[in-house]
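testing teh design pipeline on a random one, pls ignore if ur not involved
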């Protein structure tokens, strides 16, 4: 039996229904022991200001058959993690909208205990339209978190330090990474602050042995880095999605050097395709991130992904 809290049309959790859900008189709660999937994660109208749906760390005690759980980071605590120890939990999804400075965060000890109890546990973390959350993401990461999916969506703070942290701590678990954002003044953003050094995404592709999906939209990446990623991952990289407008080539001579966007040639396509063992071309966006407002782009891109993930 699966349970999904009712969502409003724009994807934000209906708070009234959410509060009623945890009422012991609620019909669903009477069948809590049979529920295997519980999706409480939300998408906020305004990630910087929203109503807080409170529930205690023992709110999930009755869900003895729980396999899959999604929730907001606001509700994640050591107590909640400990309440999952005696349940057959297999996957968790956490949405990060903002990070309240009063949030106690979770501890490395508790995550390690949970993973020791459930060694197959998978954790998906999605940062949603929140530059503040993205800039402080390392502060909520814990080395023992079994992160297999990481989505950094419209948060404008993806940088080399964050990518390096993920590479170091989640090399044995990471399978999917999405980095999606809007360009700045018509140009893709930069995640690599030291272009004369090895691209951190190349190192991630090398170290993360289970990586099978990389989506990069709104950030610039050199053509040589894409070739290197394809060679390192080969056919194991099932989905490599990068728009042509984010790919640049660098031309250097004794007198000058310059970069060009969207100027890759057939030889580049051939090298990437050969390494992936399938035809490959840059992604053609179904939406125009360069012209849409942030809200429209965000909604049109992310809602189908998250709703499909939670089977709405």
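output:
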């Amino acid at each position: 039996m699966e349970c999904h809290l009712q969502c409003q049309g724009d994807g934000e959790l209906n708070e009234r229904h959410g509060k009623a859900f945890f009422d012991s008189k609620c019909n669903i709660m009477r069948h809590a022991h049979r529920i295997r999937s519980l999706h409480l994660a939300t998408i906020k109208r305004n990630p910087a200001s929203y109503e807080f749906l409170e529930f205690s760390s023992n709110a999930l005690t009755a869900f003895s058959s729980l396999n899959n759980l999604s929730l907001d980071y606001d509700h994640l605590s050591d107590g909640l993690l400990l309440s999952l120890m005696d349940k057959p939990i297999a996957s968790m999804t956490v949405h990060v909208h903002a990070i309240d400075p009063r949030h106690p965060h979770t501890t490395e000890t508790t995550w390690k205990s949970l993973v020791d109890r459930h060694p197959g546990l998978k954790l998906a973390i999605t940062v949603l339209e929140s530059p503040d959350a993205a800039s402080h993401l390392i502060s909520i990461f814990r080395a023992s978190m079994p992160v297999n999916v990481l989505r950094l969506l419209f948060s404008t703070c993806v940088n080399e330090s964050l990518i390096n942290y993920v590479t170091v701590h989640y090399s044995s678990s990471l399978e999917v990474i999405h980095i999606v954002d809007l360009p700045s003044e018509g140009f893709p953003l930069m995640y690599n602050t030291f272009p004369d050094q090895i691209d951190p995404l190349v190192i991630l592709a090398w170290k993360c042995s289970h990586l099978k999906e990389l989506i990069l939209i709104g950030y610039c990446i050199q053509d040589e880095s894409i070739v290197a990623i394809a060679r390192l991952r080969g056919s194991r990289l099932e989905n490599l999605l990068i728009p042509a407008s984010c790919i640049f080539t660098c031309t250097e001579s004794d007198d000058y050097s310059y970069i060009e966007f969207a100027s890759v040639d057939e030889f580049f396509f051939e090298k990437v395709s050969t390494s992936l063992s399938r035809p490959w071309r840059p992604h053609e966006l179904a939406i125009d991130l360069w012209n849409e407002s942030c809200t429209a782009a965000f909604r049109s891109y992310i809602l189908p992904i998250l709703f499909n993930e939670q089977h709405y």
